[in-house]
Amino acid sequence: MKPTLKYESKTDIKIRLIVTTGEPAGIGPDLCINLSQQALPFEWVVVADPDLIAERARQLQLPVQLTAFEPSQQARCNAPGEIKIQAVKLANQATAGELDPENTRYVLETIKQAVQYCQQDADAGLVTGPVHKGIINQAGFPFTGHTEYIAELTQSPLPVMMLLTPGLRVALVTTHLPLHQVSQAITPSLLEKVIKVLYRDLVSRFNIADPVIYVCGLNPHAGENGHLGTEELETIIPVIEKLKSQQIKLIGPLPADTIFSPANLEHADVVLAMYHDQGLPVLKYKGFGEAVNVTLGLPIVRTSVDHGTALELAGTGRINTGSMKFAMQTAIDMLDNSQPRS
After folding, report:
1. Residue 3 above 80 pLDDT?
2. Which domain holds residue 242?
3. How much is the pTM?
4. How many domains does the structure of the chain reveal?
5. pLDDT per residue over 139-154, tens digit each?
6. Which DSSP state fits 13?
7. Which domain CATH number covers 46?
8. pLDDT tens-digit profile of 212-233?
């Protein structure tokens, strides 16, 4: 299924998407410029340096009209070629493909301003372009990812990362941790809280009335009844049984090498993986370029592309906008599901 951008409002309320371009040397600006060439049925605003967008558009030889964003005005659809801008200035002029640690504050500031706006406007959702974690940390800012940073900005105690592509959703108990730290990190308290956030947001953000959650084991063969690890017996199974008694539909723990079989996925609304590389390789194999990263457990809607900065493609015109389109569409759907419409 190719991602398409559609929106039919349930009322005259106009949804507004706030988009960050991420790393200025990467393809985030290119994605926005390419998408601006078509008429989209909703308003979207880019938080970026106007000079960056104008220069990259010249490099791509694509026409754009930059319009200053006026938050007080009623939302209206962008015209073809129009990019509405919430201006944030770069420290240094960005060159496509060339990282500059001096522009790290700019990257973080665009995210901060976008989050603040979405906190003020219940009809606004955040869509983030790819950042380069390495250059942010090199610049002296401790940064493990958008998920954790946005949770800090919104004072959200437990963000949950979920990626989805047509036909599959995968959520994570732990995110950006070294593998040797995963087992200790998965405590009964954490697992219970993650499952509750996942259940709640599947109901409220995705309009799934009674979600079925399939749960991976941590160890090969889900521990083989303790012979290949005891985390299933000591942590995962007790939490599953406790939450099943609270009418949450949980299946597992199941071995990660078989949980993604068609027979299981036919009945699962989401697969809950214990760590990053347990579940995401399967999802990205199935839908790379047509997948979206969603942060659950926030007071705002936030989605993101499923790929990196692709520095080597910045300014070349050889990019795929599929993931950004799907991120926008998912944000629209989540906003529409989240709010009561008369």
Report:
1. no
2. 160-295
3. 0.92
4. 2
5. 999 998 899 999 999 9
6. P
7. 3.40.718.10
8. 999 999 999 999 999 999 999 9
